[in-house]
Amino acid sequence: MINSNCDMHTHTNCSDGELSPVQFVNFAHELGVKYLSVTDHDNVDFYLNKEAINLLNKYQIQYITGCEFVCRVGLHPIEILGYGIDVDKAKKYLDKHGVPEEKMRTMRVKESKIIFKKLGFNIDFKDLDQDPVDVIYDEIKSNSKLKDIIEAENPCLLESPSNVLRQGLNNPKSILYINPRKYFPSYKKIIKLIQKKLHGVAIVAHPFHYGYVMKKVLTSCVNANIDGIECYHYTVNSKAKNEYLINYAKRNNLLISGGSDFHNRGDIKDMREQKMIKIPANVFKTIKSKLEKRNAN
After folding, report:
1. What is the DSSP letter of 280?
2. What are the phi and psi torsion angles at 60 (to 5°)?
3. Bridge partners, residue 62, by sequence
4. Residues in contact with 156: Cβ distance below 8 Å, sequence separation at least 6, in sequence order
5. Could you tell me which residues come within 8 angstroms of residue 4 by beta carbon, excluding any fewer than 6 positions away?
6. What is the rounded distance in angstroms from the CA atom of residue 281 to the CA atom of residue 128?
7. Residue 120 belongs to what domain range?
8. By the 8 A CB rule, do 201 and 83 touch?
9. pLDDT score, position 296
10. Which residues, 6+ apart, have CB-to-CB distance to 218 below 8 Å?
11. Which of 88, 144, 196, 281 ranks highest by number of CB atoms within 10 Å?
């Protein structure tokens, strides 16, 4: 949020963010955000917090409802952003079928224990408040034998907990891989849900997070009539990457979105977001216009 007055991808403690809805809105206001979407993972409770919504209106921050839906393309976990969604209908679906933070953590603890046992190691998840990905990262770093095994597969994997997730747990080529098939819905189901039942638009989140399967993910989503691509994100830290996604979106007549993926104030302290390409306010306005036209029909 630090380098732009527009941010369409943010998180609160309704999922895995640091700040409560009210704290988040106050912080966004302090940073000068004027156009916003809160996109918690499989959770829309932010929009049911009356105090937070009243603050948005008080600060004259324009917002579009949002949620980051967990799903998969084949064996590859991905996320799709839903904008302008009907919050009440979304909550009913997510309460029954969603993969919110608590369910995600339980799944990662269960499956990781099995994976590490096969490798000959036991991993202890004593602190239930700590993210399992952080526990796995710390465990590998502190165990020299385990660290050697992981680094032999992929030296970059231990650069950060995020790499453990994206290049390990979510990567079918990794020994740390967790198969999402029995946990996550298909991308086709989520795109249809967002567009048809929740009356919103569907956007592929952070394509560069998907590494070597990025093109497959984009092609699959385009073939399933996705509405757009997130072309501005902290992983899009060069003009070349930004132009690649924008040109892809234009060729396929797709909406262009962008967000910092803000989770906590540490993201700003670590200067992660300052490395981003600035998100133009037109991103918000174009998505809003698309929603108005779709719901007018």
Report:
1. P
2. 60, 40
3. 35
4. 163, 167
5. 33, 260, 276, 278, 279, 280
6. 39
7. 102-169
8. yes
9. 83
10. 204, 207, 229, 248
11. 281
Same domain, 92 and 198: yes
Decide if 174 is inside a domain.
no
- DSSP-based three-state secondary structure for 205: coil
- Asked if 82 and 121 sit in the same domain, the reply is no
pTM of the predicted model as reported, rounded to 2 decimal places: 0.94
SS3 288: helix
Residue with tokens 């997070």: 209
The strand pair at 66-73 and 76-83 is best described as antiparallel
> What is the pLDDT, as a whole number, of residue 149?
94
Number of domains in the chain: 2
Q: Which of 17, 102, 5 is nearest to 52 (CA)?
A: 17
- Band (128; pLDDT cuts 50, 70, 90): low
Q: What share of the chain is helix, strand, coil (3-state, %, to 5)?
A: 50, 15, 35
pLDDT tens for each residue of 33-61: 999 999 999 999 999 999 999 999 999 99
Q: Count how many residues are written for the chain.
A: 297
Alpha helices in the chain (DSSP H): 21-30, 50-58, 87-97, 101-118, 132-142, 144-153, 161-163, 187-192, 214-223, 239-251, 265-269, 282-296
Does residue 175 sit within a domain?
Answer: no
Mark whether 123 and 237 lie in a shared domain.
no
